[in-house]
Design brief:
CATH topology of one domain: Lipocalin
CATH architecture of one domain: Beta Barrel
Order of helices and strands: HHEEEEEEEE
Organism: Aeromicrobium chenweiae
CATH superfamily of one domain: Uncharacterised protein family Atu4866
Strand content: 35-45%
Protein name: Lipocalin-like domain-containing protein
Number of helices: 2
């Protein structure tokens, strides 16, 4: 037996003797646990706008709008809520909408906001240009 093999064998015996059994006095039960860290998720504090039915431009926008190329329909409801249907999924997203001049904001219940521009008889969003459903 070489000196290196003997040294490794002795080291293994010493390390084996350092283990703990489940009946130890530390109350650990011999269980191995891994440390965990947790980052708290901040609450969503986005205040959804409410729509004044009498606000300039709001009443004129109520109704259904579509972007046919994206299979998208936007329903702007009189009470200030909206519903989006997307690629065959009805009620894909809901939330509240507001108008400020030529800007329309859709604040979803998911906390995301889509902003668009009112341009004549269309609503221009990043997804595309919506026209009124006929």
């Amino acid at each position: 037996m070489t000196m290196a093999t003997a040294a490794i064998g002795i080291a293994l015996m010493v390390l084996t003797g350092c283990g703990s059994d489940s009946e130890g006095s530390d109350g650990g039960g011999g269980e191995v646990t891994s440390p965990t860290t947790s980052t708290p998720t901040p609450p969503i504090t986005t205040e959804a706008p409410s729509v004044d039915p009498e606000a300039d431009g709001a009443a004129a926008l109520r109704g259904d709008w579509e972007i046919p190329s994206e299979d998208y329909v936007l329903h702007l409801i009189e009470d200030g809520t909206f519903v989006q249907d997307y690629q065959g999924i009805e009620d894909f997203r809901t939330g509240k909408w507001s108008v400020d001049g030529t800007k329309i904001s859709l604040v979803g219940d998911d906390g995301d906001t889509d902003e668009g521009t009112i341009s004549g008889d269309t609503l221009v969003f990043q997804l595309g240009t919506a026209t009124r459903v006929k």
